[in-house]
């Protein structure tokens, strides 16, 4: 398989989608996906990720004024059957009236390819996906993982310009999911195919894509590599959607964020954009907070409770002036019990401050 | 649950009801094969009556088969696409069409027949031909075909299957014949069986629509019940049962098979 | 799909058939029933005892048949869903075969059972010395209507009873309810929608049944027979049209009720 030659870049220009009932599913969107890149569309249900995928697929059409390009080819008004896409559906959409081989061969069959070519390519696919023993089985005799592989084989046999995957792993159990996402990622990279992958599972998103686009209420909240979106989220939404965050709301006091008797020292790069006395919110991940002795710390609290999670202990600390319990991941084998007085240390580099969007953004 | 007194009481009652339904069938079968029904089976078994029915009424049997087959063919061509359209569209128009297509089930055959006669009765070429009966049968059986296919379509996620086929480059007609039709097979087959059975046994409409030259089997049956001796009527009924029982058994067998999941 | 309305073409054959051979005839029927002296037929139906009696007796007969079928079918249907035993599938098959027998054949079966040489007559002769002949009276019609109603209702009851949540029964038993209390408080309420739906279908079929009455040729004029007589013997097309529209309206109403209750509207002419 040499998909790299057929793959193209995808460009969306001012693509917007209004449903027939008037709801705006997708706000005007500009997006460029490089040839051979895997882009993950991530977001909660109803955020517009599936709509975006269906627009790229040609199962939906965008509002007037939008434009979708596959390489140089304008496919805005081209129906799916002429777009040369491959698609893997959430429910796989395998044809129950055909067996595994027939399903895989279907894309070649409708193109009127010769019998020899069909047989040769189906054989290649069966080998690639370890499906040889199942070639003549009915779809209802396959396990979930096998169906998933048939769906993928069927989608790439025609060497599509673009591969679209709509939550392809969501019907599988957790263990299989983890294994398959690595396999799929490796396969797509090897084929060098341009792929758009929709999921609502942030762990899956981080494992899969070159870039992740996080969608929120019909628009892209942030787009970037896994590191970028995890370590420097550009909005509260992104910060909370990917991983977990502790929130500290307070006033900028000198070079620190202060609330009641506690304060957190800030590095200069963070505080310099704010004015003295301004209300700001900073965030940090549970795994970045360390517990120390109560006396030396600038941030003090009492343990509310702790949960043993195997590889770490999640300690929830109540800090005066902080509305929610602070979540701390503790990797040492140490027990904390309710009421223990602890100090919290947050390395300045692990603090995340959102760009100053105006003080009304932060509610104390 | 223990099989106590209530079990046997209910069993007895159920057997009684079954007997009520089945005994007349056996009675007419034996009567049709007995030399003299008033004397009883001891008068001897014979195929004489069946032969007599064949000479008297074989044309009605052929016509019934012909009409049933053509009705099925028309239902296939009209009903399957229609069911697909109804499954796919959710508009006021399709709701109205759905109602129009279901209505012939609710309206007594008599009324439909009167309506057909009032509109087309004047066109004697049409009125005199078996096509007139065919039209009545199509109107009466079409809803069953549509509903049967529609039920299957609504139970499978055909939209996604179609999207899958489209993503692989299949055109509309390819999708329809490669994916939609094969996956509706159970609905289509049960629709066919239903159409054949109903058309073969249709009387209410046919009695009004038939002419002396276009008699179907049930019309002939009514005729024989009124004017023939009991053994002939029974033999005729026997032939009718012989025609539709295979269809009924096939339908039963089809329903018992576990449905394939999409 | 945008600019792709090909599939709308698929409705055209059905549309033509339905328009030409159903809607148009029905419209003509309405027009005919109203055209003659501004719908005088409807007035006659409401005032002339002949028509009124036919309407009422059909209505009453259908109602009684419906109630009787519901009672019989509930007992049989519950029995067949509740217990597993050898030969059960044969019984179920026996109960469902008569579903598609045409009315004329059912009429003949009634003659076989209760005619002058029928089973009941022999039975009566043996027991009391006189032949019991019920076939050509209202009892004959009742037997015939029961014959085509029972399978319909039994199958619906079985369908509804299979969906019955068994936990409900167990919950009832855990609370100490006895057999009759369970039936009254748990099973029957759960079956009610199915019973209403199949009862309506049964009623509608009985109202429109022609073949059975035609074969038995009883002295009792059920509505379809009256329509037939008006049309053939009296050549009164307007009256036949009006009567069949009234009949059609009643049966349509019943089947609408049935559909509201979620039942399939697959009733067939008896």
TrEMBL record, chain A:
GO CC annotations on file: ATP-binding cassette (ABC) transporter complex, substrate-binding subunit-containing
Keyword ATP-binding: yes
Protein name: Putative spermidine/putrescine transport system ATP-binding protein
Keyword terms of this UniProt record: ATP-binding, Cell membrane, Membrane, Nucleotide-binding, Translocase, Transport
Ranges for domain ABC transporter: 10-242
Domain of life: Bacteria
Taxonomic placement: Bacteria, Pseudomonadati, Pseudomonadota, Gammaproteobacteria, Oceanospirillales
Pfam families in the cross-refs: ABC_tran, TOBE_2
GO molecular function, a single term: ABC-type transporter activity
UniProt xrefs under InterPro entries: AAA+_ATPase (IPR003593), ABC_transporter-like_ATP-bd (IPR003439), ABC_transporter-like_CS (IPR017871), ABC_transpr_MalK/UgpC-like (IPR047641), Mo/tungstate-bd_C_term_dom (IPR008995), NA-bd_OB-fold (IPR012340), P-loop_NTPase (IPR027417), Transp-assoc_OB_typ2 (IPR013611)
Organism: Marinomonas polaris DSM 16579
Signal peptide as annotated in the record: none
From TrEMBL, chain B:
Membrane topology note: Multi-pass membrane protein
Taxonomy of the source species: Bacteria, Pseudomonadati, Pseudomonadota, Gammaproteobacteria, Oceanospirillales
Cellular component GO terms, alphabetical: plasma membrane
One Pfam short name: BPD_transp_1
Protein's UniProt name: Putative spermidine/putrescine transport system permease protein
Family of the protein in this entry: Belongs to the binding-protein-dependent transport system permease family.
Organism of derivation: Marinomonas polaris DSM 16579
Domain ABC transmembrane type-1 per the UniProt entry, residue ranges: 61-249
Spans traversing the lipid bilayer: 7-29, 61-87, 99-123, 129-153, 235-254
GO biological process, one term: transmembrane transport
Keyword vocabulary terms for this entry: Cell inner membrane, Cell membrane, Membrane, Transmembrane, Transmembrane helix, Transport
PANTHER family linked to this entry: INNER MEMBRANE ABC TRANSPORTER PERMEASE PROTEIN YDCV (PTHR43357:SF4)
Compartments in which it is found: Cell inner membrane; Cell membrane
From TrEMBL, chain C:
Residue ranges of domain ABC transmembrane type-1 in the record: 55-258
GO biological process, one term: transmembrane transport
Chief location category: membrane
Domain of life, source organism: Bacteria
GO annotation, cellular component aspect: plasma membrane
Bilayer topology: Multi-pass membrane protein
PROSITE patterns: ABC_TM1
Transmembrane regions: 59-80, 92-114, 134-155, 194-217, 237-258
Classification via InterPro entries: MetI-like, MetI-like_sf
Keywords: Cell membrane, Membrane, Transmembrane, Transmembrane helix, Transport
Pfam families attached to this UniProt entry: BPD_transp_1
Protein name per its UniProtKB record: Putative spermidine/putrescine transport system permease protein
Organism encoding this protein: Marinomonas polaris DSM 16579
Lineage, highest ranks first: Bacteria, Pseudomonadati, Pseudomonadota, Gammaproteobacteria, Oceanospirillales
């Amino acid at each position: 398989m040499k998909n790299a030659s057929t793959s193209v870049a995808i460009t969306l220009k001012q693509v917007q989608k209004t449903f027939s009932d008037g709801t705006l599913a997708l706000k005007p969107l500009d997006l460029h996906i490089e040839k051979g890149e895997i882009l993950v569309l991530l977001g909660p249900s109803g955020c517009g990720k599936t709509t975006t995928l269906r627009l790229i697929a040609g199962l939906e059409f965008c509002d007037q004024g939008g434009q979708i390009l596959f390489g140089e080819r304008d496919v805005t008004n081209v129906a799916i059957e002429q777009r040369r896409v491959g698609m893997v559906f959430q429910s796989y959409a395998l044809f129950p009236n055909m067996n595994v081989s027939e399903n895989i061969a279907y894309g070649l069959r409708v193109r009127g390819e010769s019998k020899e070519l069909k047989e040769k390519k189906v054989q290649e696919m069966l080998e690639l996906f370890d499906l040889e023993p199942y070639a003549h089985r009915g779809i209802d005799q396959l396990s979930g993982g096998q169906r998933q592989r048939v769906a993928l084989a069927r989608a790439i046999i025609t060497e599509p310009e673009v591969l679209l995957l709509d939550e392809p792993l969501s019907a599988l159990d957790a263990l299989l999911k983890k294994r398959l996402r690595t396999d799929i990622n490796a396969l797509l990279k090897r084929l060098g195919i341009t792929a758009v992958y929709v999921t609502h599972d942030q762990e899956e998103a981080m494992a899969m894509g070159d870039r992740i686009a996080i969608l929120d209420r019909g628009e892209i909240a942030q787009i970037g590599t896994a590191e970028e979106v995890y370590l420097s989220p550009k909005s509260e939404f992104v910060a909370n959607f990917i991983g977990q965050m502790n929130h500290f709301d307070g006033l900028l006091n000198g070079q620190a964020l202060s609330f009641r008797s506690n304060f957190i020292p800030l590095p200069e790069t963070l505080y310099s954009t704010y004015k003295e006395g301004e209300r700001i919110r900073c965030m940090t991940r549970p795994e970045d907070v360390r517990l120390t002795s109560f006396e030396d710390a600038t941030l003090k609290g009492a343990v509310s409770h702790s949960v043993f999670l195997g590889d770490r202990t999640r300690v929830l600390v109540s800090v005066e002036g902080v509305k929610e319990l602070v979540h701390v991941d503790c990797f040492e084998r140490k027990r904390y019990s309710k009421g223990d007085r602890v100090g919290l240390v947050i390395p300045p580099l692990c603090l995340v401050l959102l760009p100053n969007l105006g003080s009304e953004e932060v509610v104390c | 649950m223990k099989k106590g007194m209530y079990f046997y009481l209910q069993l007895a009652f159920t057997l009684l009801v079954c007997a009520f339904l089945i005994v007349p069938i056996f009675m007419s079968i034996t009567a049709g094969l007995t030399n003299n029904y008033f004397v009883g089976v001891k008068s001897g078994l014979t195929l004489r009556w069946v032969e007599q029915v064949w000479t008297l009424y074989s044309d009605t049997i052929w016509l019934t088969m012909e009409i049933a087959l053509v009705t099925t063919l028309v239902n296939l061509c009209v009903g399957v696409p229609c069911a697909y359209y109804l499954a796919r569209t959710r508009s006021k128009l399709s709701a109205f069409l759905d109602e129009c297509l279901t209505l012939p089930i609710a309206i007594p055959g008599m009324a439909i027949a009167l309506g057909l006669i009032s509109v087309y009765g004047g066109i004697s070429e049409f009125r005199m031909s078996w096509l007139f009966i065919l039209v009545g049968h199509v109107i009466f059986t079409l809803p069953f075909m549509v509903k049967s296919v529609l039920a299957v379509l609504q139970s499978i996620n055909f939209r996604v299957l179609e999207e899958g086929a489209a993503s692989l480059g299949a055109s509309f007609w390819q999708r329809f014949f490669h994916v939609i039709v094969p996956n509706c097979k159970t609905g289509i087959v049960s629709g066919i069986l239903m159409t054949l059975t109903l058309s073969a046994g249709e009387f209410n409409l046919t009695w009004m629509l038939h002419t002396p030259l276009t008699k179907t089997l049930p019309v002939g049956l009514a005729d024989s019940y009124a004017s023939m001796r009991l053994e002939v009527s029974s033999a005729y009924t026997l032939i009718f049962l012989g025609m539709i029982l295979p269809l009924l058994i096939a339908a039963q067998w089809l329903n018992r098979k576990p449905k394939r999941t999409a | 799909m945008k600019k792709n309305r090909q599939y709308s073409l698929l409705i055209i054959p059905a549309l033509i058939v339905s328009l030409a051979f159903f809607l148009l005839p029905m419209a003509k029927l309405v027009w005919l029933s109203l055209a003659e002296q501004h719908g005088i037929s409807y007035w006659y139906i409401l005032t002339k005892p002949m028509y009124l009696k036919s309407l009422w007796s059909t209505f009453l007969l259908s109602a009684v048949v419906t109630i009787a079928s519901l009672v019989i079918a509930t007992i049989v249907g519950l029995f067949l869903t509740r217990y597993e035993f050898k030969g059960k599938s044969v019984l179920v098959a026996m109960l469902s075969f008569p579903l598609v027998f045409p009315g004329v054949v059912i009429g003949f079966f009634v003659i076989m059972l209760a005619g002058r040489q029928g089973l009941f007559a022999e039975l009566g002769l043996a027991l009391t010395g006189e032949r019991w002949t019920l076939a050509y009276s209202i009892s004959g019609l009742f037997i015939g209507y029961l014959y085509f109603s029972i399978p319909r209702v039994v199958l619906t009851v079985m369908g509804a009873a299979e969906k019955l949540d068994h936990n409900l029964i167990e919950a009832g038993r855990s609370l100490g309810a006895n057999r009759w209390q369970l039936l009254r408080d748990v099973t029957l309420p759960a079956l009610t929608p199915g019973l209403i739906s199949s009862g309506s279908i049964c009623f509608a079929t009985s109202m429109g049944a022609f073949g059975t009455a035609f074969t038995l040729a009883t002295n009792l004029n059920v509505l379809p027979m009256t329509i037939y007589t008006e049309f053939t013997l009296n050549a009164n097309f307007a009256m036949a049209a009006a009567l069949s529209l009234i009949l059609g309206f009643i049966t349509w109403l019943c089947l609408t009720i049935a559909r509201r209750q979620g039942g399939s509207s697959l009733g067939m002419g008896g």
